[in-house]
Design goal:
alpha+beta, five-stranded mixed beta sheet, elongated
Length: 378
């Protein structure tokens, strides 16, 4: 069987994309079938250190080594015929330096073999880097919860028991102090109990889950309670495949996020948006290893509230960090743990008037998941 001839472009091809690509506030460039630059916008000129007149027609290998992940991504886009995104990519080269970026690549339909590349270095890559920090936070709170349950609850039981014995021998005017000891011990035990959910190390049972059923269930719960004054906007991808997950835990995580959004939205004209999308080719590269997580299912919860203060955004998933005056700061830490247990990632994007939490989740895998039936909870 004869192999098809590889696609070759005409020498030094150049392209005239729309002004939208040229105006994007990120490096955008087009490479032809031979990986030569055919178009660069102003940010890409800064990235490559030259003007478009000097860059167009030159090989991308002048800036990057041939084993760079970008060349592999270009090859995969051409082979598969659809766009791909790769997060947390390290680009290195003698003239390029070392950069930690996110890459989005798509075929240019009007030119065979040509691929347009968008490189995000500051915004998205930093968010994805924070996702890995959130994963570490989820794991650290798990260890802390196990320690508290063992090292704190047992001594507290002894302290409370001693205070109760003292209460039997004290005059009435001193019993107030022993009751105070008991009450404070009980308060600490309740706090530790609320963290014990983090210490549950039992393996999860995964099943194919309809994420729209989960969102609908959460919507009904919130709309009948804390979200009565909120306008809910649902924008779902009806063709979304099933999620690999644990339905009860996904409900717990999404319920927490939607409840927070409903509470943050203004009492008048408050809006919470629930959105699902499928992003084919989305992959998260894990630092320190060659593993790439395929997380094409996206679920976002957005509100039009005041936003998360900038100084808290990097720590918002850490335990005991909260934007609420009376909050304990455990809700989002639990969300981070649940999503981490699912092999997913979570991203926060917040500014005044708009806060969006985006979950990235894996597809259901019938060969690995529990397959006793679709987990709808009905």
């Amino acid at each position: 069987m004869n192999r098809p001839e590889p696609i070759r472009s005409t020498p030094a091809a150049s392209y005239e994309p729309s002004g939208i690509l040229a105006a994007l506030p990120a490096p955008v460039f087009v490479v032809d079938a031979d990986d030569r630059l055919g178009f660069v916008n102003a940010d890409a000129e800064s990235l490559f250190g030259g003007s478009a007149a000097n860059l167009v027609g030159r090989s991308l290998s002048e800036w990057l080594q041939r084993d760079s992940p970008l060349f592999l991504l270009l090859s995969q886009v051409r082979e598969r015929g659809h766009s791909l995104s790769e997060y947390g990519v390290s680009l290195e080269g003698p003239r390029f330096g070392s950069r930690f970026v996110t890459l989005d690549a798509a075929l240019l339909p009007e030119e065979p073999g040509a691929v347009v590349v968008v490189l995000q270095e500051r915004s998205i890559a930093r968010k994805i880097d924070r996702q890995l920090t959130h994963r570490n936070a989820a794991r650290s709170v798990t260890a802390m919860a196990a320690m508290l349950a063992h090292e704190v609850k047992n001594p507290l039981s002894g302290i409370r028991g001693a205070a109760q014995l003292l209460e039997l021998t004290q005059p009435d005017q001193d019993r107030e102090l022993t009751r105070l000891i008991c009450d404070e011990a009980d308060r600490i035990v309740k706090l530790v109990d609320s963290m014990e959910m983090f210490a549950d190390g039992r393996p999860l049972e995964y099943r194919p889950v309809n994420i729209h059923e989960v969102l609908g269930h959460v919507h009904r719960l919130i709309a009948s309670g804390a979200g009565r004054h909120i306008k809910f906007v649902e924008r779902y991808d009806p063709s979304l495949p099933l999620v690999r997950g644990n339905r009860d835990l996904l409900i717990q995580a999404i319920l927490n996020l939607v409840q927070n959004a409903a509470q943050a939205a203004p009492k008048v004209a408050g809006v919470v948006q629930l959105v699902t999308r499928y992003r084919q080719g989305v992959r998260l590269a894990v630092r320190g290893g060659g593993e790439k997580l395929h997380l094409p299912l996206m679920v976002s919860i957005e509100d039009n509230g005041p936003g998360v203060p900038e100084d808290l955004q990097a720590r918002i998933f850490d335990p005991f960090v909260s934007t609420k005056p009376s909050g304990k700061g455990l809700g989002l830490a639990l969300v981070a743990k649940i999503i981490d247990d699912h092999g997913g990632a979570i991203e926060l994007d917040s500014e005044p008037g708009r806060t969006r939490f985006t979950l990235y989740l894996p597809l259901s895998n019938p060969t690995k998941d529990e397959t006793r039936g679709l987990d709808t909870g009905r």
